[in-house]
Write the structure tokens for this entry.
Amino acid sequence: VIVLGAGGGVGLAAVQLATALGARVTAVASSDEKRSTAAQYGAVSLVNHTCGDARAALREAVPDGAHAVLDPVGGDLSEPALRSLRRGGRFVTIGYASGVIPRIPLNLVLVKGIHVLGFQFQDIGPDEFARNEAELRDLLASGTVRPHIGAVYPLDQAAAALQQVAEGRAVGKIVIDLRTPSDDRSTPAKP
Ligand SMILES: NC(=O)c1ccc[n+]([C@@H]2O[C@H](COP(=O)([O-])OP(=O)(O)OC[C@H]3O[C@@H](n4cnc5c(N)ncnc54)[C@H](OP(=O)(O)O)[C@@H]3O)[C@@H](O)[C@H]2O)c1
């Protein structure tokens, strides 16, 4: 499985869940910190999409092509990732954190018999949602998956927390702690 935005909130969760399901995960992320965090949670192959040809880097990481791409980023990364699928692979579009909705040439989908799927939380029916939640609780309780908290901010620094997310600097999830004002905090907020 290739996970784009692998250091972000959706991406790191995807890295952990895919690993828990037995997949070999290739994590695509822009910084050393994001890639090393993805590795910490199970990614076995790491791709820096900011230096050069993403398609070539993905080909090297997954020479036989991936079974699935999970894409919460969009923009310029989507097409090289889709090209990195094997015949019959699945491309799952989840979000557009880059701010750009990609346009994919449909012949790429045709020639490899690729399945393009959209995923939205709100499309999951109540029965499947309950089943997913029960499975997630088990994975959390057993410690198999663990939400990664990249930084904690007190409420009076909420703007800085949002800024970190908006600039794509968040690693995993950012928490706003409502319990204590910034000057009482034992753990200083990480910028
Ligand atoms: N479909 C659904 O059910 C569902 C559920 C939750 C979230 N979402 C969507 O999924 C997307 C990702 O959410 P997230 O919580 O994972 O976000 P996030 O923690 O901010 O991660 C997004 C990643 O996208 C990359 N990116 C590239 N250009 C960016 C830019 N201009 N600004 C910010 N990030 C940029 C960054 O990775 P690099 O630094 O590695 O490039 C960043 O780590 C959002 O669009 C969100 O709305 C969809």
In short: The chain is about 35% helix and 20% strand. Residues 1 and 24 are 6 Å apart (CA to CA).
